[in-house]
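Exercise (ungraded).
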Amino acid sequence: MLMGPDIETLIQKISRLPGLGPRSARRIVIHLIKNREQILFPMLTSMDNVLKNVKVCPICSNIDTFTDMCSICSDSKRRGDVICVVESVADLWAIERTSCFSGRYHVLKGLLSSIDGQGPELLMLDKLQKRCKENSITEIIIALSANVEGQTTNHYIRNFFKRSSLLITSLAQGIPIGGELDYLDDGTLFAAFSARG
Amino acid sequence: MLMGPDIETLIQKISRLPGLGPRSARRIVIHLIKNREQILFPMLTSMDNVLKNVKVCPICSNIDTFTDMCSICSDSKRRGDVICVVESVADLWAIERTSCFSGRYHVLKGLLSSIDGQGPELLMLDKLQKRCKENSITEIIIALSANVEGQTTNHYIRNFFKRSSLLITSLAQGIPIGGELDYLDDGTLFAAFSARG
């Protein structure tokens, strides 16, 4: 046996995290073991806190430490008439970092994908519809990635709310800030042209 | 506050691990929280086991789960007359994976580096010398990286054992397997030419 079973198990577990592999997992585990008191022990405490305290918000599916609902749903200073639909909590955090939106969120459990067998139940649209009615929401902003799954899901959500009086909007598509024309793909250039203003 | 303090603390800690940054740390933390029972909890248990059970071998400085000495030092089937000097446990694991060496190891605490203020005390050569005398070692293999720090340390170790009767060898330098001549750097090509045989 090359190394103790405990070390091997930890390396295996870490190597399965997103973006990591066996080599980076080995580096991380050696780093953790070398800095047992300064890094490994505090990391353990920190993970334990997250395990104990972090919950999924029953209203918007954001993850946070809370008692009844997440800090965004319980913040009375935020606009109560707009809901932004995002694919994941990572996207919610990305939008929050820009400070461009002060409404509330609806975090999907995933996007529609026939290849991965992901159906409309992941979108929890009945829950969203109920929430819109109960809170007199006027606008739903669909903030999904501009890939096939994102656009399919966008279309499905728009179709679902077709008969409602809600304003349904999507993120603008066009040239990214700093983007140079001749490096852009044809699709983006076409979209930017079509949506010119 | 964008997210709970527990989540933020964990992201910060993970982002400081080698090879990771804020973005990958966020992805990992979301993955951990989403898979709380299947991934986060087992990871916690696994880290706790490592924290409790893994020690540094008093003889060779390998890390392992053991009572008196590591599995390599206590394995009586391994050759007892050769010691291989490596920079880190990662390098020890790399050599073990090749199964090309059946002796024992001496794991350095770092390489000589005047820029980083790393002096000869990291090499623990007195300990290595004592071990060589007590165990009638005949050969020391210096298996260090072919960079400036590695070669400086190699030179220092050779100089330290100059008056002893020990055979001191280093890893061969040359073209890596699968390497193509015209993509090699000049230094490697020169070394490969000089050491031809």
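Further reading is listed at the end of the chapter. For now, observe: Chain B is about 45% helix and 10% strand. Chain B has a mean pLDDT of 91.
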